Automatic annotation (TrEMBL):
Renumbered residue ranges of the record's region Disordered: 369-392
Residue stretches spanning the membrane: none
Keyword DNA-binding attached: yes
Name of the protein in its database record: DNA-directed DNA polymerase
Organism the protein comes from: Octactis speculum
InterPro entries: DNA-dir_DNA_pol_B, DNA-dir_DNA_pol_B_CS, DNA-dir_DNA_pol_B_multi_dom, DNA/RNA_pol_sf, DNA_pol_B_thumb, DNA_pol_palm_dom_sf, POLBc_alpha
PANTHER family in alphabetical order: DNA POLYMERASE ALPHA CATALYTIC SUBUNIT (PTHR45861)
A single MF term (Gene Ontology): zinc ion binding
Record localization: Nucleus
EC number, as in UniProt: 2.7.7.7
NCBIfam families xref list: pol2 (TIGR00592)
A GO CC term assigned to this protein in UniProt: alpha DNA polymerase:primase complex
Keywords (A to Z) from UniProt: DNA replication, DNA-binding, DNA-directed DNA polymerase, Metal-binding, Nucleotidyltransferase, Nucleus, Transferase, Zinc, Zinc-finger
UniProt-listed SUPFAM superfamilies: DNA/RNA polymerases
Length: 392
């Protein structure tokens, strides 16, 4: 959803999607998630954006001093919208062909009963969706033969305008509260506890928004029963799954939380999941707080008495480049372990994930070999082979 990056890992050369400042907190009334279907391909069709429908080449001169925070950073302004939106350009036509084909495949998918064929059709419709979305990426990617940065920038600028317009519609025209938005989606706090009423609110917003466009289509992407919104691109929620017979089940969804990171040990992840489940449970606040305190106190006792297996303390970090290319290798545990592994004649390559354990006892240089390296077994608190011992 963001802008195409420069070569390497530099900052984007133009502004990407609009990300609203989240209204952080724990929400215990239903949250609506509304999402534009294939936003960027739909924008290209909606406004007939193409090489063949607009003058864009003169806008690709790069500024000598691009302002990083400005929408026009890295190029001299946005090209004007195409004047003729009826005589379709090449790119909109290609996208429309792909999307129409995907609609046909999805219809076949609904009718198919054979499990194997259903899987094949599902893969095909996903591939078609990816192909349609990738056409915008070709415009923004500097190494693409179809690279046209001003056109890509116009697409993302339209995306920001559309998302803000949708927020204004929901808040100013319909009296709803938007608590977050990111590129092609918004979250609305319905302040309702009746699921039927929530669905009606969603339908109203979708209908009002879709009246404004010919190709762009807002849809209800989901309903959250409870949600913990922490910051941009970081939240956890219980997703409502409503069957045709009216049966409702809940599944947990996490986006951007540290619980899914490899550089947290298993014990931290497990404990975090337990605490998160309590927070999202909908139980009274005092019950939740007591349960979390009890959980942490029990865990502390298990850790002090050595009941937690050493495997639960293992942290894994990846090597993003060659060890010699890290300027601060001494300060990073996984690099110290990787060096030791090389010394012992083991293969260590870029992309490998190095496991280690933080321990209390420190050997010279902060690294100690395991006394049980040959068997691969270690006592609690001892660093296993290929793991680091350093001050906790």
């Amino acid at each position: 959803g963001g802008a195409a990056p420069k070569k390497g890992r530099g900052k984007p050369q133009y502004a990407g999607g609009l990300v609203l400042e989240p209204k952080k907190g724990l929400y215990e009334t239903y949250i609506l998630l509304l999402d534009f279907m294939s936003l960027y391909p739909s924008i290209i069709q909606e406004y007939n954006i193409c090489f063949t429908t607009m003058e864009w080449a003169k806008y690709k001169t790069k500024s000598t001093n691009p302002a990083e925070d400005e929408e026009e950073a890295g190029f001299d302004g946005l090209p004007p919208d195409p004047e003729n939106i009826d005589d379709k350009g090449v790119v909109p036509k290609v996208i429309r062909t792909i999307i129409n084909r995907r609609v046909q495949v999805k219809q076949l998918l609904k009718q198919e009963t054979d499990v194997g064929k259903k899987q094949q059709l599902d893969i095909r419709q996903k591939a078609l969706k990816l192909t349609a979305n990738s056409l915008y990426g070709c415009l923004g990617f500097s190494s693409s033969r179809f690279h046209a940065q001003p056109i890509a920038a116009l697409v993302t600028a339209k995306g920001r305008q559309i998302l803000q317009r949708t927020v204004d519609l929901a808040e100013n025209n319909m009296g709803l509260e938007v608590i977050y938005g990111d590129t092609d989606s918004i979250m609305i706090d319905t302040k309702c506890t009746d699921l039927k009423e929530v669905n009606e609110i969603g339908k109203k917003v979708v209908n009002e928004c879709n009246k404004l466009y010919r190709t762009l289509e807002l849809e209800m992407d989901g309903v959250f029963k409870t949600m913990l919104l922490l910051k941009k691109k970081k939240y956890a929620a219980l997703v409502v799954n409503e069957a045709k017979d009216g049966t409702v089940t809940l599944t947990k969804e996490m986006k951007g939380l540290d619980l899914v990171r490899r550089d947290w040990c298993g014990l931290s992840k497990t404990t975090g999941e337990i605490i998160l489940d309590r927070i999202l449970s909908g139980e009274p606040k005092e019950v939740v707080v007591k349960a979390i305190h009890d959980c942490l106190e029990t865990l502390a006792v298990r850790m002090r008495t050595g009941e937690v297996e050493v495997e639960e303390y293992i942290i894994t970090k990846g090597l993003n480049k060659s060890i010699k290319d890290y300027p601060d290798a001494k300060s990073q545990p996984h690099l110290q372990v990787a060096k030791r592994m090389l010394t012992e004649g083991k293969m260590v390559n870029t992309g490998d994930h190095i496991p280690f354990v933080i321990c209390n006892r420190v050997a010279q240089g902060g690294v100690a070999a395991s006394s049980t390296a040959a068997t691969g077994e270690g006592d609690k608190g001892e660093a296993k082979d290929g793991e680091k011992k350093t001050e906790a």
